[in-house]
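To: structure subgroup
Subject: Chain for Friday's discussion

All,

I'm putting the inputs and outputs inline so they're searchable in the archive.
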Amino acid sequence: MEEKIRVLHILGIVAGGGVESVIMNYYEHIDRNKVQFDFIVHNDNKIDITQRVEAMGGKVFKVTPYYKNPIAFTYGIYKVIKKHHYRIIHSNMNTLSAFPLFAAWVAGAPVRILHNHSTSSPGETKRNFMKYILRPLARLFANYYLACSRLAGEWMYGKKMMDSGKVTVINNAIDLKKYAFNSAKRKALREKLGLTNEFVIGHVGRFMYQKNHDFLIDIFKEVSQNCSSAILLLIGDGPLRQVIEKKVEMLGLKNQVKFLSLRNDVQDLYNVMDIFILPSHYEGLPVVGVEAQANGLPCFFSTEVTKEINLTHTAHFLKLDSGPSKWGEVILFEKPIRNMEATKEMSRAGFEIQNCANKITRFYQMV
């Protein structure tokens, strides 16, 4: 009988974001008789995936966060790799993967996978400074290279390396059936949220600079001035949440903006929405954009989001510098209608999870 492949995934922070969502999607759908995932996470995360992982046969190791003590973080990973003799290390921390991949290299792990899920933005000077320092180190200690999109791949590895075929693009695939539109769930959840015929705009994302909530609120203000029934649902949490809450109150939008915090029923909440907005400053390939399109939602993305997210005919792209009034005008002018053929379009685009899980299984079997 073929020995089961054990892969140690480095997640670090678990805060309801897209990266852990992608990896957990793959974990749930991969053939666990062939491949088993274990995880290294920070020991101070708000979300604990231990029970979920152990139910599927995996292990979760908790280490000191890199932002508290990079040396302790790296050494903690090294000890786990050495003690359990992991052969395959799969790091999902983008440029911060320099730390775990260095630990894996020192520990003698023969397969060190760098998986990039992001890019950079001119608006984050300090963060970008660290990214540009760590990027070559992350590449140096890796010997296998993955990316969630061509854009993310070119940012991390360069166009020449992407063109050489050394980098494998792994789509941020999802269970399309799980995210398909469900009218019964829409009715039940709208009633639960006190909604009837309101025009509901949705957003899922961590409250941080990247996701551009500040601009999103400006867009919503424009929409609400011309559509009195407009409601904005904000799903997620993060360091800038209080700043956005204060802005909403200052603009007199408190009764129209609902902060739903972290949720474990996001797949159902897409049914409540009428459109989805993601005005990000930068993205790799946002899994929430994949999920929202699978639900058939008309989606409005900033042009800073890779065009590779253009998976259905209801995806729209607008420039951030066109201003919130232009965004509001386009959103209302489009009079968006839900795409009832979304899952078919998504499957043709290569975002059905089972096919992609089979692809990554073959990848692990070859390395």
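Points worth raising on Friday:
Residues 5-173+352-366 form a domain with the Rossmann fold fold (CATH 3.40.50.2000).
DSSP finds 16 helices and 13 strands in the chain.

D.
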